[in-house]
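Now for a specimen:

…
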Amino acid sequence: MTEQRLAVVDLGSNSFRLVVFTWVDDSWFRLSDEIHETVRIGEGLEETGQLAKEPMERALETVELYAHYCRATGIDDVQAVATSAIRDADNRDEFLERAALDVRVLTTEEEAFYGYLAAVNSTMLSNGVALDIGGGSMQLTLVKDREGRDMRSWPFGAVRMTERFLAQKSLKPKHLKALREHVGAALAEVPWLGKDGDLAGIGGTVRNLGTAAMLRLDLPAFGVQGFPLRKKVLDEMVEDFAGMSAADRAKVPGIKPERGDLILAGAMVVQAVMDVGGFDEMEVTEAGLREGVFFSQLLSHRDPPLFNNVRRASVRNLAAEYGQLNAHTEHVADLALTMWDALGSGDAVERELVWAAAMLHDIGMSIDYDDHHKHSRYLILNAGLPGFSPRETALIGQMTRYHRKGSPTLGQFAALGRDGDEEMLTRGSAVLRVAEQLERSRDQAVDRVRVRLDDGRVELTLDAHEDVAIARWAALNEAEVFKKAFGRELAISEGR
């Protein structure tokens, strides 16, 4: 297998970012390095139409740093792309000629396309709208059956909207009203906005708002991936931000200090999209335009370049990254789902969480065998699982945490839970434990398990091609947690 690397350099209106993606053929991929600089190259562009001298010099110095990094680390495949500010500047040619990297200036359609790829490959968006807001522009893409049908762009980025409407030292209601009316009038001309469907958002503004909302609600903040940002919470944050100075906004938990002066305008643009579109919530993703560029290369053999199933792809990718996409893992998942299905335990979504936990239960072995169940949870929570919400990711993490021992509980993640989640966690952990023990020898000796419900008991019959005495003994040690989960005694026999 051949390891490949791609450096994507995203030259945005507010910040420049170099991200390195590493992947091995069709096996797995990961983000392996990142350098971020708040450059503000679009500063003053709204008024003059040109890149100002100081922002341009900052930008050129940053690009030189990135070029040096790529040379020093031996990365030959570099894609540098520029968006709104550089695209719209009258003097962009001067910047491009002086830049230490070959920069491709994206058209509005290309920028929207990469944003769409990032959103649809990292969320559950199938029908609705993908939103991408940067420093200079905002893109909306109509999504039908996961395909981008109509892509539109407006100069509604956080930097531009701040400079045009909210640059005053003392904000007044009329300034906020002017921004709302300006954005709202343009969005009202979009015929498909507000025609049902879901909303998914990418970009630094969206990520900051999602993180701030999670902290505001006192939710465990192990990542904003998949977080449903509710309109009601966004409205409350906008109202609070409007009454603060930029310095005070920069101190709000979840808002990066360098975004303190921009977050209000960005939040109001997102708010306008949700207002006009009638969206009650927006799914937040940590992916951005740079991921879109990467996906266009990784999945170039597909048209459009999309994962067939985001949730399954993210689980299998994480398992493969830590060397756990193997016969043992697959067999544990099969055994667990056989029991889950026979016991009639919940709906299709719950079944998918059990499958994900089974596929990932051993990734902590890459750290150490001792406490690898806890290490697995740590890796799941910190790596993130695109396609799953924070609640679902926490449930998967807790199932892996309790796949060996302990009394399953949501614990520190209780604030994310819903009614019935504790019981579902216990059921999922129980079948995962039994499946793990049936595969204790890690040799797939138990070919399959037959499940029979009989008078308050669950009878498992093991069909095997080798002696299963150890598997039967180990699985029966989980009878107590199994009874707690399903209210039935566990009996295990060998098939003939």
User: Anything to note?
Assistant: The longest strand covers residues 28-38.
